[in-house]
Design a protein that fits this description.
Blueprint: E1 6-9, H1 19-28, E2 33-39, H2 51-57, E3 64-70, H3 78-84, E4 88-92, H4 99-108, E5 112-117, E6 135-139, H5 154-165, E7 171-175, H6 183-188, E8 193-196, H7 198-201, H8 206-224
Parallel strand pairs: 1-8, 2-3, 3-4, 4-5, 5-6, 6-7, 7-8
Length: 225
């Protein structure tokens, strides 16, 4: 099954002083999703933002809010992120003991459910929840910091995740070190959603973002050819 290629810029690399404009600009530049990296300073080293900021951003675009919860525990906060306007809520397999329950809760809130795997976490962690998923997010760096380099071993992991998905309607997303150089590697392995933060937001304004999004998309399409 060929899934559509989607670009999901991470606002973690955006200018937080003008975050609403940064969100609308990157969507105007051609991005389909907006990636929201929520970090708690516990599960990962840094602290970013929470539901109140996401709720404030929601009126700035109708694009899909792709919310990546790097927090533990996640379950007590799922309803708050749903209420804030997230369309997809992704939890880490490593963040709690009851992954199946977390995914069921997300879907019961009317949202799409995703699961993220850190680089060292095997795909076996999600084999028994595949039918409860709308998205798999493969971390191609260790989460917590932007601007890291892509871990080459993740290409094989992406390919195996793609095989595990099979014909299921599950998006395969990759986050970490995505550039024009690495995009063809991940799409060639089967990924269809690319998260890029530093690569896109290093520019200034919608025109720069559009150039970068176009370059990234062309490179990613090349991997799918």
């Amino acid at each position: 099954m060929t899934r559509p290629l989607l670009i999901s810029p991470s606002i973690l690399a955006a200018d937080f002083a003008r975050l609403g404009q940064e969100v609308s600009d990157v969507v105007d530049a051609g991005a389909e999703w907006v990636h929201l990296d929520v970090m708690d300073g516990h599960f990962v080293p840094n602290i970013s933002f929470g539901p109140a900021v996401i709720k404030a951003l929601r009126p700035h675009t109708k694009a899909v809010f792709d919310c990546h919860l790097m927090i533990a525990p996640a379950d007590p906060y799922l309803a708050a992120f749903a209420d804030a306007g997230c369309d997809i809520i992704t939890v880490h397999a490593e963040a709690g003991p009851h992954l199946h329950r977390s995914l069921q809760t997300i879907r019961a809130l009317g949202k799409k459910a995703g699961v993220s795997l850190n680089p060292a976490t095997p795909l076996s962690a999600i084999e028994h929840v595949m039918d409860d998923l709308d998205l798999i997010l493969i971390m191609s760096v260790n989460p917590g910091f932007g601007g890291q380099k892509y871990i080459p071993a993740m290409t094989d992991k992406i390919a195996k995740a793609n095989a595990l998905i099979g014909d299921r309607p599950i998006d395969l997303e990759v986050d970490g070190g995505i550039t024009a150089a690495t995009a063809p590697l991940v799409t060639g392995a089967g990924a269809n959603v690319l998260v890029a933060g530093s690569a896109i937001y290093q520019g200034k304004g919608v025109d720069d973002y559009r150039k970068t999004v176009d370059i990234l998309r062309t490179a990613a399409e090349g991997g799918r050819a």
